[in-house]
Write a sequence for this structure.
């Protein structure tokens, strides 16, 4: 397990607890009392740290190297029923954007999401979760297939942004994202969107228009990353913590601003601390959300979705 800087007091106590247990096992000394005292202190420290997280600390947790990625969720939720579909039928298959059909129980869903890598090799293969235009076109092709067969869509957002390279611009990055936003507003099947990690900029919005938009507790959703915001406003990355605060990018901020519908609770310490519990919660939330949407007619679905987005940002003085 890797620890972030603010988690170091927890690491120290966990190390102490481990040493204490080893001493108890290797010698005949009774360390039960000492171990239970350390455990109590550990619980208190964990609650104190995770209850008072700053926006920047939540950004750090959303990028935690042990945090589950899109494919982890899909494999855990769908198991062997997941069938990955490839290619945009125009240029090539984008490895940063994955999608395919999978089942939760007896219900089929079209899953689409950005996928990051676990090590240097897979990060390069997945282009660090930054999709090219063909990724967004693949996503749209899959959404249109889902619409044709009446299958609900689930999108999982986890990207530092769409790929900003020259070749992406040449192939129409802006148009691909804009086209997806337009088509998603009028898609005739339910769309459930979940931010599972980083939800940055248009890269996230390109698959982020949903009837219900949900965020895991330690994720962020914003027009720009704190580092980029800091470098524009202060000409330096040093003010990223202030930028994270000002951007109002946490799940609770987004809920308060009525830009997302629901916050999915994570286990204490983040999704990576208890992956199985996180997967179970996300799976149950998808089913519960679908239950609330499945009886709406396509006309009502589109109408409510359009109203939802039309009301965002309206300020009553």
């Amino acid at each position: 397990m890797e620890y972030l800087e603010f988690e170091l007091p927890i690491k120290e106590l966990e190390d102490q607890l481990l040493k204490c247990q080893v001493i108890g096992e290797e010698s005949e000394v009774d360390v039960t009392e000492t171990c239970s005292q350390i455990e109590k202190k550990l619980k208190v420290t964990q609650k104190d740290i995770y209850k008072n997280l700053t926006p920047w600390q939540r950004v750090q947790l959303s990028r935690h190297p042990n945090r589950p990625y899109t494919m982890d969720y899909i494999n855990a939720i769908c198991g062997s029923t997941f069938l990955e579909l490839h290619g945009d039928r125009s240029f090539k298959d984008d490895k940063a954007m994955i999608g395919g059909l999978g089942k939760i129980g007896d219900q089929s869903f079209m899953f689409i999401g950005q996928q990051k890598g676990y090590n240097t090799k897979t990060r390069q293969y997945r282009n660090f979760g930054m999709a090219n235009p063909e990724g967004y076109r693949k996503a749209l092709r899959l959404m249109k297939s889902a619409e044709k067969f009446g299958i609900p869509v689930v999108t999982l957002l986890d990207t530092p942004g769409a790929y900003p390279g020259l070749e992406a611009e040449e192939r129409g990055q802006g148009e691909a994202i804009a086209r997806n936003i337009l088509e998603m507003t009028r898609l005739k099947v339910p769309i459930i969107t979940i931010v599972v990690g980083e939800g940055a900029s248009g890269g996230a919005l390109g698959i982020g228009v949903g009837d219900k938009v949900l965020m895991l507790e330690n994720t962020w959703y914003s027009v720009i990353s704190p580092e980029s915001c800091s470098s524009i406003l202060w000409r330096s990355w040093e003010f990223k913590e202030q930028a994270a605060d000002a951007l109002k990018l946490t799940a609770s901020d987004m809920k308060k601003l009525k830009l997302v519908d629901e916050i999915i609770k994570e286990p204490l310490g983040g999704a990576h601390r208890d992956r199985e519990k996180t997967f179970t919660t996300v799976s149950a939330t998808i089913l519960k959300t679908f239950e609330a949407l499945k009886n709406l007619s396509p006309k009502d679905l589109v109408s409510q979705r359009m109203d939802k987005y039309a009301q965002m940002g309206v300020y009553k003085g």
In short: Residues 32-51 form the longest helix (20 residues). The mean pLDDT is 95. The beta strands are 83-84, 97-104, 107-114, 153-159, 191-200, 212-216, 220-222, 262-264.
